[in-house]
Amino acid sequence: MKDLWLIAGLGNPGLRYRNTWHNLGFMAADRFASNHGLAIKKNRFQAKTAEASILGKTVLLLKPQTFMNLSGNSILAAATFYHVPPERILVICDDLDLALGQIRLRGKGSAGSHNGLKSIERVIGQHYARLRIGMGPRPDGDLRDVVLDRIPKQAEPVVDEVLKRAVDCMAIWLGEGLEAAQQVHNQK
Fold first, then answer.
1. Rounded to whole angstroms, how far apart are CA atoms 3 and 116?
2. Would you identify the CATH topology of the domain 5-185?
3. What's the rounded Cα separation, in Å, for the pair 47 and 181?
4. Would you put residue 43 in left (φ > 0), alpha (ψ -120 to 50) or beta?
5. CA distance 137 to 96
6. Is the peptide bond between 137 and the residue preceding it cis, with omega within 30 degrees of 0?
7. What are the φ and ψ backbone dihedral angles of 53, each rounded to 5 degrees?
8. pTM of the model
9. First and final C-alpha spacing in the chain
10. Catalytic residue numbers?
11. What is the pLDDT of residues 70-91, one digit of tens each?
12. Is the pLDDT of residue 1 over 60?
């Protein structure tokens, strides 16, 4: 397929992980899909997927079902099958180092401490776009406990608002490009 764009929201599958911080990527992908009349539910590439024309581009929305730390396997399988170069891949994930309510879009870079991004970096390198959704500040102690905590009720309004901005950022990235999306959303 020519000129397919891949948007992957990271998270962990299963009811146990629903509405946890680590599933902010899944939530953003689902909301983006819903805004375009889609549901991400077809099983392919060790993921839930949906494929459609969005903003004049063929897009594969993908939610890896491999668990966070193996997300790269799913993304590599889809990117290889469709011959998608890294510059047409956007990955959405949570970020402990960004304050709650912030988002940051980068065109390339290090995975930092994020195991899902490390998995992707191992298989496709660092030259893909990533949209990080803040859940910070970073606490002391075991980070696994924090990222797998359910989002508390008092944080839900902020999460709802940041997901709206993340979805808007995804649409600008797809329709107008990385720099346009960064100009709008990295300022806030």
1. 25
2. Rossmann fold (3.40.50)
3. 26
4. beta
5. 6
6. yes
7. -90, 120
8. 0.93
9. 36
10. 22
11. 999 999 999 999 999 999 999 9
12. no
